[in-house]
Amino acid sequence: MFIVRIILDLLALTLVIAALAIFGLEGLLYLAESDLKSPLGELWFSHLPQGLNLTQAIVQRYLSPKIWEIVFVPVLLMPAWKGMSITGGAFLLASAILRQVAAWLQR
To answer: How many domains, in total, are found in the chain?
Structure first.
Protein backbone atom coordinates (compact mmCIF):
# COMPACT_ATOMS: atom_id res chain seq x y z
CA MET A 1 0.00 0.00 0.00
CA PHE A 2 2.99 2.26 0.58
CA ILE A 3 4.00 2.02 -3.09
CA VAL A 4 0.48 2.92 -4.23
CA ARG A 5 0.53 6.01 -2.00
CA ILE A 6 3.91 7.07 -3.39
CA ILE A 7 2.66 6.62 -6.98
CA LEU A 8 -0.50 8.59 -6.24
CA ASP A 9 1.52 11.37 -4.62
CA LEU A 10 3.88 11.57 -7.60
CA LEU A 11 1.01 11.59 -10.09
CA ALA A 12 -0.77 14.27 -8.11
CA LEU A 13 2.34 16.42 -7.82
CA THR A 14 3.05 16.08 -11.55
CA LEU A 15 -0.51 17.01 -12.49
CA VAL A 16 -0.61 19.99 -10.15
CA ILE A 17 2.73 21.31 -11.47
CA ALA A 18 1.55 20.84 -15.07
CA ALA A 19 -1.72 22.59 -14.25
CA LEU A 20 0.14 25.56 -12.77
CA ALA A 21 2.41 25.73 -15.82
CA ILE A 22 -0.55 25.67 -18.22
CA PHE A 23 -2.40 28.22 -16.10
CA GLY A 24 0.62 30.52 -16.22
CA LEU A 25 1.00 30.06 -19.98
CA GLU A 26 -2.67 30.80 -20.59
CA GLY A 27 -2.39 33.83 -18.33
CA LEU A 28 0.49 35.16 -20.40
CA LEU A 29 -1.42 34.49 -23.62
CA TYR A 30 -4.45 36.28 -22.17
CA LEU A 31 -2.28 39.30 -21.38
CA ALA A 32 -1.10 39.21 -24.98
CA GLU A 33 -4.78 39.48 -25.96
CA SER A 34 -5.02 35.94 -27.19
CA ASP A 35 -8.11 33.97 -26.24
CA LEU A 36 -6.64 30.52 -25.69
CA LYS A 37 -8.33 28.30 -23.17
CA SER A 38 -7.49 24.87 -24.48
CA PRO A 39 -9.68 22.07 -23.18
CA LEU A 40 -7.78 19.23 -21.53
CA GLY A 41 -9.09 16.72 -24.08
CA GLU A 42 -7.86 18.83 -27.01
CA LEU A 43 -4.43 19.22 -25.43
CA TRP A 44 -4.20 15.49 -24.68
CA PHE A 45 -5.35 14.54 -28.19
CA SER A 46 -2.89 16.91 -29.85
CA HIS A 47 0.07 15.38 -27.98
CA LEU A 48 -0.96 11.72 -27.63
CA PRO A 49 -4.11 10.80 -29.59
CA GLN A 50 -3.69 7.06 -29.09
CA GLY A 51 -3.54 7.55 -25.31
CA LEU A 52 -6.87 9.34 -25.21
CA ASN A 53 -8.50 6.74 -27.47
CA LEU A 54 -7.06 3.88 -25.41
CA THR A 55 -8.26 5.44 -22.17
CA GLN A 56 -11.76 5.84 -23.57
CA ALA A 57 -11.84 2.24 -24.81
CA ILE A 58 -10.62 0.85 -21.47
CA VAL A 59 -13.04 2.91 -19.37
CA GLN A 60 -16.03 2.16 -21.58
CA ARG A 61 -15.26 -1.55 -22.01
CA TYR A 62 -14.06 -2.54 -18.55
CA LEU A 63 -15.78 -0.03 -16.28
CA SER A 64 -18.87 1.53 -17.83
CA PRO A 65 -19.78 3.88 -20.69
CA LYS A 66 -21.67 5.98 -18.14
CA ILE A 67 -18.44 6.61 -16.20
CA TRP A 68 -16.84 7.97 -19.37
CA GLU A 69 -19.82 10.26 -20.05
CA ILE A 70 -20.39 11.43 -16.47
CA VAL A 71 -16.82 11.70 -15.13
CA PHE A 72 -14.30 11.87 -17.96
CA VAL A 73 -16.06 13.97 -20.61
CA PRO A 74 -16.74 16.97 -18.32
CA VAL A 75 -13.11 16.94 -17.12
CA LEU A 76 -11.82 16.70 -20.70
CA LEU A 77 -13.97 19.66 -21.73
CA MET A 78 -12.60 21.87 -18.93
CA PRO A 79 -9.66 24.20 -19.51
CA ALA A 80 -6.47 22.12 -19.23
CA TRP A 81 -5.23 23.77 -16.03
CA LYS A 82 -8.54 23.20 -14.28
CA GLY A 83 -8.89 19.59 -15.43
CA MET A 84 -5.36 18.74 -14.32
CA SER A 85 -5.89 20.50 -10.99
CA ILE A 86 -9.04 18.50 -10.30
CA THR A 87 -7.38 15.24 -11.30
CA GLY A 88 -4.31 16.02 -9.18
CA GLY A 89 -6.56 16.91 -6.25
CA ALA A 90 -8.41 13.61 -6.63
CA PHE A 91 -5.10 11.73 -6.53
CA LEU A 92 -4.04 13.67 -3.42
CA LEU A 93 -7.35 12.84 -1.76
CA ALA A 94 -7.00 9.15 -2.65
CA SER A 95 -3.46 9.15 -1.24
CA ALA A 96 -4.63 10.78 2.01
CA ILE A 97 -7.41 8.22 2.34
CA LEU A 98 -4.91 5.40 1.82
CA ARG A 99 -2.69 6.89 4.53
CA GLN A 100 -5.60 6.90 6.96
CA VAL A 101 -6.55 3.32 6.06
CA ALA A 102 -2.94 2.16 6.47
CA ALA A 103 -2.68 3.91 9.86
CA TRP A 104 -5.96 2.36 10.95
CA LEU A 105 -4.85 -1.13 9.86
CA GLN A 106 -1.57 -0.85 11.79
CA ARG A 107 -3.37 -0.37 15.10
So the answer is: 2
Judge if 45 and 27 occupy the same domain.
Answer: no
Q: Do the Cβ atoms of 84 and 14 come closer than 8 Å?
A: no
- pLDDT greater at residue 21 or residue 32: 21
Residue 90 structural domain: 1-37+81-107
Task: Kindly report whether the global pTM for this prediction surpasses the value 0.90.
Answer: no
Closest CA to 22 of 55, 44, 53: 44
Q: How far is CA 24 from CA 14, 79, 81, 106, in A?
A: 15, 13, 9, 42
What gap in Å lies between CA 61 and CA 68, rounded to an integer?
Answer: 10
**Tell me: the pLDDT tens digits for 51-66?**
999 999 999 999 999 9
Give yes or no for a contact between 8 and 89, defined as CB atoms under 8 angstroms apart: no
